[in-house]
Amino acid sequence: MRFRFFIAVSLLLAARVAVAAPPGRSCHLPGAEEALRCVTVQVPLDYAHPGKSIAIHATVAAAYREAARPDPLFVLAGGPGQAGSDILPIVQAAFRRVRATRDIVLIDQRGTGLSGKLDCKTPPDIDTMTEEQADAYTLRCLKALDAPYVHYTTDAAARDIERVRQALGYRQINLWGGSYGTRLAQHYARLYPANVRALILDGVAAPDQVIAAGGADAQAALDATLRRCEQAPACARTFPALRTEFAALAAKLAQGPVTVTMADPRTAALRPVTISLRRFVATVHRSLYAQADAHTLPFLIHSAYNGRWEPFVAQSNRDTDFSTDGAMSGPLYLAVVCAEDYPKLSPQLAADDARGSFLGSALVTQLGTLCPVINAKPVNYTAAAPITAPVLLLSGAQDPVTPPRRAEAAARLMKAPRHLVVKNGGHIVSTLGCVPRLMREFLDQPGGKLAAACLDEIPAPTFQLDSAGPQP
């Protein structure tokens, strides 16, 4: 099932211990050409009452050099619902320089990937379902899974990381967290401060951030994209009434879904496709995550306004079916959000957040339907002592879910924070421009200076004006 609540490496690289190779077995996983090391660690399902255990999967990409540093980089994926084994390409894209001297370790959080994934498959007729039918399908799946959702929390996941660290024989570790992974990394650092050498947090979730209340940040990112189009002569000339067209589409869909007949992208057979307001805003929101996708929105919106929905539906399908994010565990997302975020979502906060945002209240309404089935106990993590380890915080100025203000809030609970902002970056910037080099330099000398002026050289993508794709 598509758990796109409008929300936001692959390898557990471990520094070598006293053996020739990291523990575990040789394995080949999708997204990586080379042989890696796969490790399985048994952990308690319930840390308060140990008894039944579950298996946690970790992937280790060993350092390139024989004389590897003893402190690996543990990589924590986002969501919640992503697994480390789902995002292996990031090892090469973001951590190639780090891997020269350090193992990279990716953990599949309990309930994701190869750690007993809680999964609801997307039904084949999802495109023709009403929202009510889709939610009913999800409810049936959640009940059929009958999982002990109460044990799938951030706290339990952090304790799992500690068991993996012990199993691999590391003393101190470095942590990279992306999106929700930043919440998990911060929680681990507070539970086990002596075991953390340094942290890199990309797309930082502040401790007081409520995942379900993202309307204001999303609207700010959309406004920035539309403003950039208005300031780019070619985009402004091609789409002179973009804001009016977007508002008209949203108003039309608020009256009821639109059904269009188009060729199935997999079979080429003509079929009806239903575009609801929820699907529309979810696709727009997810497109804002990456700047390359955000710069296609003017073309997608204008095409849909003129009755040509095919490009918009193709973007929606790519986002949910064919991207790495398509492997996200929806039930794990719910287990975390329904226990840790939804209880904090007061009616006043929900109303204030939805006011003036294109996201509206669809997410809150959906969670109100699904969270009772999870039956998770509300979790209130109190802010502990400030994180003492050095922290590099990374933000994209155009991020629709964790913009720089979230990192600034998190930094107030850190003793040695350093915040870098990529002005032309969206959600997760570790793969962009000189950021991989800066991460390596930070890990080598957490207290040293970083020549970060290169971040301003990262260009903004060009806008897509027609079906030929982005401008040259």
UniProtKB/TrEMBL annotation:
Keywords: Hydrolase, Signal. Belongs to the peptidase S33 family. GO terms for molecular function: peptidase activity. Residues 1-20 form the signal peptide. Pfam families: Abhydrolase_1. This is Alpha/beta fold hydrolase. Gene3D superfamilies: alpha/beta hydrolase (3.40.50.1820). InterPro entries: AB_hydrolase_1, AB_hydrolase_fold, Peptidase_S33, Serine_prot/Carboxylest_S33. SUPFAM superfamilies: alpha/beta-Hydrolases. GO terms for biological process: proteolysis. It comes from the Bacteria. Residues 72-429 form the AB hydrolase-1 domain. It comes from Pseudoduganella flava.
